[in-house]
């Protein structure tokens, strides 16, 4: 076809236009190619053999349709919003049927059209769907040229079209269309042009390749999921990463996407012991003995004890009911009233004073005779068994000698005994000494035996 250049020129014109639109806002551009048929018969204004009534024999393909058995139509379109598409179409044909007549020579057909169409798909299907009917209006220009007679002047047309696209996927469709072209000039020819095409949509941008176009992708640079508008859920826990406090670890919605490995109700990031169930008050760590000290800091995790003793209970080594920390005599059983120390009984004190009767001094002196050391050592040992008791060491004399002399001698002898006991480990704070002279006899001073009993050192208890 020597005039194929006109078709190619029209095609280049179509590709050069930037104001046309296509299928939807994500894939705004579309291109369709196919075949077309031209029919001049069912256009009205009947002329015998050339035209019939409107839509008369509309589908009489064999008698009335001129079809070029090759790719003969190309359309480029762009979506402009709300279901509207603007497009331009270039087509060519060879007219071999004009109504029921046959032209004597070949009649070449060229057309360029611009149309606005409106898709009914969303009205019918709600949104989307494979069935996509549409209506359109537009204008165009058509040329007819005969080899035998030369060119027929071109003429403008007003166009009305109806068609349907069948979507085979998101980006490909098959379409059929019928378009009525009304000629304005007298020499123009009213006619129908039918098309069958295959179309492709493109132009949508999907930067992250997740199948969700950037315009609808809230995370256009990171592959994501449709249910999260294109945002990712890295750990697959059903919480998108931007709302997930632990986006790389499978977690629970109640903890903002973080896990609770030990199931203690404390999410792992806030759990100091994430693999062992514990208490919120202890940062998620366990307290086996319930003493308020987490096990990792408790030296006795299975026995309740105070923090000041590192979680261990205080001992009571002597079993007297007074804890060692409060027991002034932790190794000797005592009484609570005496702070854990034993209280000296009357019997023990009497026994000590019996022993003191054998303590002897040098004549008319305060020095203790050596044979009395063993007795005093034994007395000191017994006194140490009562570490919380305080004693008064009393010195006494018989009536021989002056009162002042006897008082002085008793004071010195009592002090001498106290110093000996202090030297044997009795704390000085536990001892006092005092001489009473001859004022407190326990027997008659008229006999040698009585005076022997009155010359004595003895103990009495002091208040603490």
UniProtKB/TrEMBL annotation:
InterPro entries assigned to the protein according to its UniProt record, in alphabetical order: Bact_OuterMem_StrucFunc, OMP_bac, OmpA-like, OmpA-like_sf, Thrombospondin_3-like_rpt, TSP_type-3_rpt
Any single Gene Ontology cellular-component annotation: cell outer membrane
GO biological process assignments: cell adhesion
Ranges where the OmpA-like domain occurs: 348-464
A Pfam family: OmpA
Segments for region (Disordered): 294-315
Residues making up the signal peptide according to the UniProt record: 1-22
Domain of life: Bacteria
Subcellular location: Cell outer membrane
GO molecular function, one term: calcium ion binding
Annotated SUPFAM superfamilies: OmpA-like, TSP type-3 repeat
Subcellular location, principal: membrane
Keyword Membrane appears in the UniProt entry: yes
Keywords, comma-separated and alphabetical: Cell outer membrane, Membrane, Signal
PANTHER family tied to this protein: LIPOPROTEIN YIAD-RELATED, STATOR ELEMENT OF FLAGELLAR MOTOR COMPLEX
UniProt protein name: OmpA family protein
